[in-house]
Design a protein that fits this description.
The complex is a heterodimer of chains A (156) and B (421). With 156 residues, chain A is of the alpha+beta class. Chain A is built from seven helices and four strands; from the N terminus they run H-H-H-H-E-H-H-E-E-E-H. Chain A has a four-stranded mixed sheet, covered by helices on one side. Chain A starts with a helix and ends with a helix. With 421 residues, chain B is α/β, with parallel strands linked by helices. Chain B has 18 helices and eight strands. Chain B has a four-stranded parallel sheet, with helices on both faces. Chain B has a four-stranded mixed sheet with strand order 6-5-8-7, with no helix packed on it. In chain B, helix 2 packs across helix 10 and helix 3 crosses helix 6. Classes of the chains: A alpha+beta (156), B alpha/beta (421). Chains A and B meet through helix 2 and helix 5 of A and strand 5, strand 8 and helix 14 of B. Bound molecules: flavin mononucleotide, iron/sulfur cluster and FE2/S2 (inorganic) cluster (FES). Iron/sulfur cluster (SF4) binds next to helix 15 and helix 17 of chain B.
Chain lengths: 156, 421
């Protein structure tokens, strides 16, 4: 169950939209922020708020790169694997981070802190290689820099 | 050098509303609302020769003129800030430095087309750009430059910010409309074109951030002046070129359209980085066929780049040095498209993974001469896909086969990648 305040906030967002479902992405994102990922319960709740069937929400949820339909760690690390980052050593960076975390790509660390995912161009190609932790983008990440970044995140 | 979009930029921070206004900001809007008809605004944009900066280069004023004049019911303007094409980051740089020229440009566009309610569709990851825009919209509204009865002219319009959740196909204009409506973002059939039947079935114009942000300068300083900022008589205006890869100082530069590729690399980019020589580049983002050293003299403008066998695209120049394997680079690019395929049509959903498979075979030394033939056929076949994503995916493959066939064949003959030791 989501808190009443969040529910009221989302109902307000939906009321301001031209049609209910226009707010679908905002609603999914808010529920994901609340639960950590878009749980089955959240899909049903989103459907209820938007006046859609759970299947209609599922159809949207599975479409987007940044909506997680499976549990993720407290922080998701997205490492760009598109062309400019590839040219600047992005593949090495991704496998280096995987080794530092002791997980494979797509997996979550045992302590539940980090999930490692490759992703599309983050629009920071001039400062490649690039990764994103949560909402924050980091450019020009060296192998040593990656280790420091992980430490910073761990100690937050 | 003259700047249009970067004119107000401050080092290391976003320009403020007061600073923008103090330097001629919103003068164009006041001028249009107090003395120009919507048709006159549209005509100025037509006369300026402005071509869309989102990839296809369609003339902006002409696109606006396709919206039927006397239809009742709402019509819409959408600013496309999906910007997920690899190698492209100009719209982010622009909006992080200055959201105001886009806001002003959108109000002018709404006035010209008769739009009451407009949207900015922003990709996930551009939260800073979205925050800047929300602030700019609030400031402009408070100052009476946006919202109800703007400047007492009787004209009203709003701008809504929609932040997406990450999917490249959302940048395709008809998929974008589905995304905005809260539907799965598969493209729609064209015709009907968006100008006739778009968002919620109403006439709709979709324009790129950079296209719209140029409108205030065109209105304030006139179409002739705008046209004259280009480097050649045929070109019109300035362009944001966002450079990445193996140059000394990769960054986003505002440069006159029609500067040559070599001038851009040797000038603002500081040449190649130490130890690197220019081997190839994507001239306009991930979907454009490669340019080689033979193309360094090509003026970077829509028609000359097309004549030279590629596309100006988004202006995202990705530069590769002599150590880059062009088969591996192409494989990376097609993998991106295969993953981002929306799955709606068979040629793209099934064809792109097959092309990935062929390139993987070749790159790993398992390729055969026949693979080259099959790849060439697929450059043609994928033109039959439902939208422009799949033909775009084959742009680099086309370039690979035209300019680097010897390198591809060397993989096949020697049974290994010649660029790997
Ligand atoms: C797969 C695909 C992705 C696209 N992504 C974008 C994008 O992120 N931004 C953009 O402005 N145009 C994008 N376009 C082009 C748009 O469909 C449309 O042509 C453009 O937004 C029109 O704006 P303009 O006339 O100002 O260039 C994309 C096209 C395709 C086929
Ligand atoms: S070409 Fe690809 S992205 Fe476009 S409709 Fe077909 S499957 Fe979807
Ligand atoms: S290619 Fe990695 S940020 Fe654009």
């Amino acid at each position: 169950m989501i808190p009443i305040e969040l529910k009221a906030e989302l109902q307000g967002r939906i009321a301001a939209a031209v049609t209910n479902r226009e707010a679908a992405v905002d609603v999914m994102k808010a529920l994901q922020a609340h639960y950590g990922w878009l749980t089955d319960e959240a899909v049903v709740e989103a459907a209820g708020l938007l006046g859609l069937s759970p299947l209609q929400v599922e159809e949207l949820a599975t479409f987007y790169e940044m909506i997680y339909r499976r549990p993720v760690g407290r922080q998701v690390i997205h490492v760009c694997d598109s062309i400019s980052c590839w040219a600047m050593g992005g593949e090495t960076l991704l496998s280096h981070i995987a080794a530092l975390l002791g997980v494979g790509v797509g997996e979550t660390t045992a302590d539940g802190l980090f999930t490692l995912l490759p992703c599309c161009c983050l629009g920071n190609c001039g400062e490649a290689p690039t990764l994103m932790i949560g909402d924050t983008i980091f450019g020009g990440v060296s192998l040593e820099g990656a280790a420091e970044l992980l430490d910073q995140q761990r100690n937050r | 050098m003259e700047q249009i979009l970067f004119r107000h930029n401050r080092p290391g921070r976003c320009v403020t509303f007061a600073e923008y206004q103090g330097e001629g900001g919103f003068v164009a809007l006041k001028k249009a609302l107090s003395g120009m008809s919507p048709d006159e605004v549209q005509q100025a944009v037509i006369d300026s020769g402005l071509r869309g900066r989102g990839g296809a280069g369609f003339p902006t004023g002409k696109k606006w003129s396709f919206v039927p004049r006397n239809l009742t019911g709402p019509r819409w303007l959408i600013c496309n800030c999906d910007e997920m094409e690899p190698g492209t980051y100009k719209d982010r740089i622009l909006l992080e430095a200055n959201p105001y020229s886009l806001v002003e440009g959108m109000v002018l566009a709404c006035y010209a087309i008769g739009v009451r309610h407009s949207f900015i569709f922003i990709r996930r990851g551009y939260e800073q750009a979205a925050a800047n825009l929300r602030r700019a919209i609030a400031e402009a509204t408070a100052a009476g430059l946006l919202g109800e009865n703007i400047q007492g002219s009787g004209f009203s319009c709003d701008i809504d910010v929609h932040v997406s959740a990450g999917r490249y196909i959302c940048g395709e204009e008809t998929a974008l409309m589905n995304a905005l409506e809260g539907k799965r973002a598969n493209p729609r059939a064209k015709p009907p074109f968006p100008a006739i039947k778009g968002l919620w079935g109403g006439p709709t114009v979709v324009n790129n951030v950079e296209s719209l942000a140029n409108i205030p300068a065109i209105i304030a300083q006139g179409p002739r002046w705008f046209k004259g900022t280009a480097a050649t008589p045929e070109a019109s205006g300035m362009k944001l070129f966002c450079v990445s890869g193996h140059v000394a100082t990769p960054a986003c530069f505002e440069l006159p359209l029609g500067m040559t590729l070599g001038e851009i690399i040797d000038g603002p980019c500081g040449g190649m980085r130490p130890g690197s020589n220019f081997k190839a580049c994507l001239p306009g983002g991930a979907s454009t066929p490669y340019f080689t050293p033979a193309h360094l003299g090509v003026p970077m403008d829509f028609d000359p780049v097309a004549k030279a066998g590629s596309r100006l695209g988004t202006g995202g120049i990705v530069v590769f040095d002599q150590h880059t394997c062009m088969v591996a680079a192409t494989l990376n690019l097609v993998k991106f498209y295969a993953r981002e395929s929306c799955g709606w049509c068979t040629p793209c959903r099934e064809g792109l993974p097959f092309v990935v498979h062929l390139l993987e075979q070749i790159e790993s030394g398992q390729g055969s001469e026949e693979h080259i033939t099959i790849l060439k056929e697929h450059v043609q076949y994928l033109n039959y896909a439902f939208c422009a994503l799949a033909p775009g995916a084959m742009g680099p493959v086309d370039g690979l086969l035209r300019h680097f066939e010897d390198e591809v064949r060397e993989h096949i003959i020697t049974g290994k990648c010649p660029c790997r030791s």
